[in-house]
Design a protein that fits this description.
This is Ig-like domain-containing protein. Keywords: Signal. This protein is an alpha+beta fold and 282 residues long. The protein folds into two domains: 113 residues, Immunoglobulin-like (Sandwich); 147 residues, Immunoglobulins (Immunoglobulin-like), CATH 2.60.40. The chain contains two helices and 19 strands. Strands 2-10-9-4-5-6 form a six-stranded mixed sheet, with no helix packed on it. It has a five-stranded mixed sheet with strand order 12-19-18-14-15, covered by helices on one side. The longest helix is centred in the last third of the chain and has 38 residues. The structure holds 2-acetamido-2-deoxy-beta-D-glucopyranose (NAG) (4 copies). The site of one 2-acetamido-2-deoxy-beta-D-glucopyranose has 4 residues, from strand 10.
Length: 282
Amino acid sequence: MLLLLMGMFVARSVSHTITTLEVPLWADPRREAELRCLYIRQQHDPPLHSVKWYRDMHEIFRYTPQELETRAFNSTGISVTNSSCDPRACVITVRPERGTAKYTCEVSSEGPRFAVDKRSANMTLAVLPEYDPLITGLPTLVQVGEQALVNCTSDYSLPAATIDWFVDSEPQEDPLITAETTVSGADGDGLRASWRTLHVYPDDYPTHRGYLALRCRATVATRPPHVRSMSVRLYVASRPHISSYMFSKNNAVASSSSRFRLETTVWTLLFFVRRQVPSLVK
Ligand SMILES: *[C@@H]1O[C@H](CO)[C@@H](O)[C@H](O)[C@H]1NC(C)=O
Ligand SMILES: *[C@@H]1O[C@H](CO)[C@@H](O)[C@H](O)[C@H]1NC(C)=O
Ligand SMILES: *[C@@H]1O[C@H](CO)[C@@H](O)[C@H](O)[C@H]1NC(C)=O
Ligand SMILES: *[C@@H]1O[C@H](CO)[C@@H](O)[C@H](O)[C@H]1NC(C)=O
């Protein structure tokens, strides 16, 4: 009879229960990420035995309240930079690594059963671009019969952006018109810039209004995707021999489009200044 009662007591004593696991879905490798695990002790539960954090299959941190101890395991290359644990919550900060990793919080109660509750969540590195993509090489004016070659460069991001070009809202897929997206080498934090060139033949767009609307779209494949765009006008000259009326109109168009080229130049300068200054400071 006594054994039966003890058996019932043991069967009813479950583990601490994890109520909340907070792991950021996306993490910036340049900053520490905070992981939070909250748990409750049910009536009849034995005291907390330990809280363990895992990155994939590797234990990275352990809190054992009975021994008043916390331990970080640096062998897997991940560094736990701070921690704050008590009988209700265990919060650690980690320096995130490349790619996607599964973080698990595992809470166990004291014996006799050392019952365990655990929960996992994935964290993926991502850095969104700070700036809109930049269009360079835009001519002041392109003559009918000529072609223009423009270049679009995305800001550094993780993962690298893919770039798409649109002319008058039409996506440009033809490999003769757009090269593939090219990706730069990684900077110290693993971020990369991308660029893609576009050949525009105004003859292919006979209905243009004196200009073609060019749009460059940079997409970072987070979920949901992060999209940034830049739009410019490519001014197209009509054939000068058609009439002097057309010619004077072109001059007006040309002066307004030179403002665009000035803007592009300023943007290019800003872009290079931004990239150069940190390395000068170091
Ligand atoms: C783990 O690495 C962090 C940062 O590099 C360091 O502060 C900490 O002391 C290390 N912990 C152990 C147990 O080596
Ligand atoms: C570590 O965490 C504690 C509690 O959250 C906080 O007060 C402290 O400033 C943190 N230390 C560092 C070096 O981040
Ligand atoms: C984490 O990602 C892996 C691989 O994409 C997936 O199989 C797994 O279900 C994810 N786990 C969680 C807890 O979302
Ligand atoms: C496009 O721009 C990138 C950098 O922004 C540069 O490396 C590349 O050479 C340029 N391509 C052309 C065809 O101008």
